[in-house]
């Protein structure tokens, strides 16, 4: 596929590390899909980000320690790109004790405060306004940190996004809204959901620095993210739409009957991992070297499955933990309540 | 000293904000305007626009931003001008704020207060007069406080601003102008504890918010007839102090629950069910709900008044139960 990169891959020495990160995401998604099909995953829903790796790796490259973010339901790649431990991620998706949220969150409600992950979200657009609040705090404290909301094109049709962008602009907040436009909201293509498909224009109308970037080349995403993040750190919130393609169905088992094979074939040509690999070969890396790297990644991600299967189920009594803060009044379990109420003389 | 409910709320905010620099208010008209009911009036002069954040009319994002700010380490007091608008914010309140601690395995809480007000009394119509506390009480993860007295307006808000979890704080629009003689220096009951406002041997009235005053009024009237009622002010609906209810109901065996909210599937229904379950062997009569009608609230002053219980209905119900 042709591209017109303003940065130029050939000159960039970091491409190998970006390729590695993208390949890790793709391999993780592949393995988590396998876990799901084997019935070892706790959630009944699993949304993969294959085809969207450049958005995660490219944007997260501009983020630093202490920056915070929220993601949507298709956020595994973003979390990995921010440094998540794939074992703990996989275990969380499997609903196991060693997961990031001790098995209570799963794929769509995963979070890690240590990495600034304020939470994935199973409500389309649900995680967006939290970054406004987090950025309000960052601005108040003058700590130079940004807060980033990642979401899909589906959320572009949710009102909460516009309330949030308006506030971010009004208050000059260090916020970035990143729309990973994979063209599909479940079975509805973007042009079936809106007439206004130039998504960044909407953000520009609110006074944000707004761009759309082609997600084929991770270096383009990196360059755009750098521009947008620089503005955000200086107090002008930003918006970046990353154009990509959702390679597979909405969920792992969705065979996408609502789109044609041709559409899929053309869409999958926008493959940021393949593109980066070809660029690396053009830079002089050889196939054997990249194969070795891929193999290392495969081993790392294979191990996450073993880790997850070996991880214990959470103990049943943890069910009543963390509804409220430790030490606070807790609800009485229904079973013990029934027993108590019926134990009459 | 004599203090109005509104002024007690304002004083609570002032004292809390002086004590904790991380507390800030965020909502529509909280700053320059001073709050639709004047609770935050003048605060912007002491604390500045950074701590009285005036927002656009965007209720979902107000609550959502408060969630994010709480997660980022501050303690926001989000204001929803009318509890009727809570439907706009249901996702941020019930799917986000309420569940974050749990979903994320206890990693973090959301120590925010959502201040709002409900109830009838200003001929404000169907969309500005409701009592929607059941929405909140039905959602695990949210605490719920509903002060009915000036003293509680102050102290429950101070306590709410120390909670580690999200608190929905529902004031009553009919109480803002009410003044009472109070000594705020008296230490408050522990958070989550009910208070017995009046002790009597014949019947227990369980209630909260403005209906406290109607219950007390009815109880005084009944006393003149020789009927003595116990009146329990729940103060918080989550935590719910059932021990106080049980202790009062068991020796008497007659109870009624009084609430301004629509009756069906409401707070009164939950309380009546609990009393029936837990005190069954002690009850002499059904636990009666004296609650709002299952209808929308009208603008007409007469229809509005007729839509919720008043002292006369409370007294009459008690008479029949005791008879």
TrEMBL record, chain A:
Pfam families: E1_dh
GO molecular function, one term: pyruvate dehydrogenase (acetyl-transferring) activity
Keywords, in A-Z order: Oxidoreductase, Pyruvate, Thiamine pyrophosphate
Domain Dehydrogenase E1 component: 21-314
Listed InterPro entries: DH_E1, PDH_E1_Alpha_Subunit, THDP-binding
Gene Ontology biological process terms, A to Z: pyruvate decarboxylation to acetyl-CoA
Annotated catalysed reactions: N(6)-[(R)-lipoyl]-L-lysyl-[protein] + pyruvate + H(+) = N(6)-[(R)-S(8)-acetyldihydrolipoyl]-L-lysyl-[protein] + CO2
Cofactor(s) of this protein: thiamine diphosphate
Source domain of life: Bacteria
UniProt xrefs under CDD domains: TPP_E1_PDC_ADC_BCADC
PANTHER family per record: PYRUVATE DEHYDROGENASE E1 COMPONENT SUBUNIT ALPHA, PYRUVATE DEHYDROGENASE E1 COMPONENT, ALPHA SUBUNIT BACTERIAL AND ORGANELLAR
Purpose: The pyruvate dehydrogenase complex catalyzes the overall conversion of pyruvate to acetyl-CoA and CO(2). It contains multiple copies of three enzymatic components: pyruvate dehydrogenase (E1), dihydrolipoamide acetyltransferase (E2) and lipoamide dehydrogenase (E3).
UniProt name for this protein: Pyruvate dehydrogenase E1 component alpha subunit
Organism: Aliiruegeria lutimaris
Automatic annotation (TrEMBL), chain B:
Boundaries of every Transketolase-like pyrimidine-binding domain copy: 3-178
A GO MF term: oxidoreductase activity
InterPro entries per the UniProt record, alphabetical: THDP-binding, Transketo_C/PFOR_II, Transketolase-like_Pyr-bd, Transketolase_C
Protein name listed in UniProt: Pyruvate dehydrogenase E1 component beta subunit
Cofactors: thiamine diphosphate
Keyword Phosphoprotein carried by entry: no
Any Pfam family matching the protein: Transketolase_C
Keyword match Nucleotide-binding: no
Keywords linked to the UniProt accession: Oxidoreductase, Pyruvate, Thiamine pyrophosphate
Domain of life, source organism: Bacteria
Membrane-spanning parts: none
